[in-house]
């Protein structure tokens, strides 16, 4: 089996509901008997868990389970006010301000070429073996779309939200400021909009620069703690998540601060699959350098599709630290 030839399809512009019922896979059933269907519940759940573990945006954003491709959710924009009450006075009342927002799931696809012999193997074994590759393809594409807007079908992304709010600061643009001061400047822009930064996201290459930051008393600003056996990094006592999967565009942002709960990720847990026999895979090259033709190479491929939604609820809740010398 060719395990390393993973090709992510472009994110499809239109979401679609699944047309298949949950498949009950008989023990020992092979792929050759069912060329389309849904990946079994248990395996699909494991893939989604791996996507959450591997995705930076899914660790930070507010997660919304979805049972259909569209979901309307109420979002609190302004809370009710409190009032000072004099003796014998009637207590004033005020209403919370709510908005109805719509999560629209889009379809992500991954194609994994494999030998024809895989059709005669038990389906559950094939899915288990390909599980990490499917998850990696999904979370890499999702992070790129949600943080930076790369090939994104979504109406919003975190970087554009920060830019639209005017919350941008270029690293090294103020003489005498170090990286810690620059990060603080980004936080100040968000706070000027009456929002509170609660976390950071950054590319992994920035970690070495952040690790040595100290305050004026020489105390470290960057700390690592262990909670429930998992190491957690923090800066200015706020959690920081690194995008380790190659989805981050370092030319556009070093770090993005924000209240990430002001963004939503919707998840449809079902994962659909299809076995391809005749396709030519334009994004995978064979040994001769030409696009891989499954029929000519005596191969097949598994296509898996996953539906996910993303939405920024409050643009002013985010601010970006641009790389040094950035020119927009």
Automatic annotation (TrEMBL):
It is found in: Virion. It comes from the Bacteria. Signal peptide: none annotated. Residues 38-321 form the Phage capsid-like C-terminal domain. InterPro entries: Phage_capsid, Phage_capsid-like_C. This is HK97 family phage major capsid protein. It comes from Brevibacillus fulvus.
């Amino acid at each position: 089996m060719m395990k390393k030839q993973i090709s992510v399809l472009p994110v499809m512009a239109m979401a679609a509901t699944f047309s298949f019922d949950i498949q009950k896979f008989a023990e020992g059933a092979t792929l050759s008997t069912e060329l389309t269907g849904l990946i079994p519940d248990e395996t699909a759940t494991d893939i989604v868990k791996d996507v959450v573990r591997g995705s930076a945006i899914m660790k930070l954003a507010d997660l919304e389970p979805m049972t259909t491709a569209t979901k309307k959710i109420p979002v609190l924009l302004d809370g009710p006010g409190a009032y000072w009450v004099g003796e014998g006075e009637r207590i004033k009342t005020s209403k919370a301000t709510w908005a109805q927002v719509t999560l629209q799931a889009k379809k992500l696809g991954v194609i994994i070429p494999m030998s024809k012999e895989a059709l005669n193997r038990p389906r559950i074994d094939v899915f288990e073996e390909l599980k990490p590759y499917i998850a990696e393809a999904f979370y890499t594409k999702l992070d790129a779309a949600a943080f930076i807007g790369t090939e994104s079908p979504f109406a919003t992304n975190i970087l554009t939200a920060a830019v639209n709010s005017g919350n941008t600061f270029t690293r090294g643009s103020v003489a005498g400021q170090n990286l810690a001061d620059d990060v603080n400047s980004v936080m100040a822009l968000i706070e000027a909009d009456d929002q509170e930064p609660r976390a950071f996201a950054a590319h992994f290459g920035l970690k070495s620069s952040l690790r040595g930051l100290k305050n004026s008393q020489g105390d470290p600003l960057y700390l690592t703690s262990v909670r429930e056996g998992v190491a957690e990094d923090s800066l200015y006592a706020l959690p920081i998540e690194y995008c380790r999967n190659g989805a981050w565009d370092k030319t556009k942002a070093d770090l993005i601060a924000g209240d990430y709960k002001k963004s939503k990720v919707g998840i449809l847990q079902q994962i659909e699959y299809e076995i391809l026999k005749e396709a030519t895979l334009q994004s995978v090259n064979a040994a001769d350098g030409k696009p891989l033709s499954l029929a000519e190479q005596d191969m097949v491929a598994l296509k898996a599709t996953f539906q996910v939604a993303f939405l920024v609820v409050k643009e002013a809740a985010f601010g970006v630290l641009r790389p040094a010398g950035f020119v927009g």
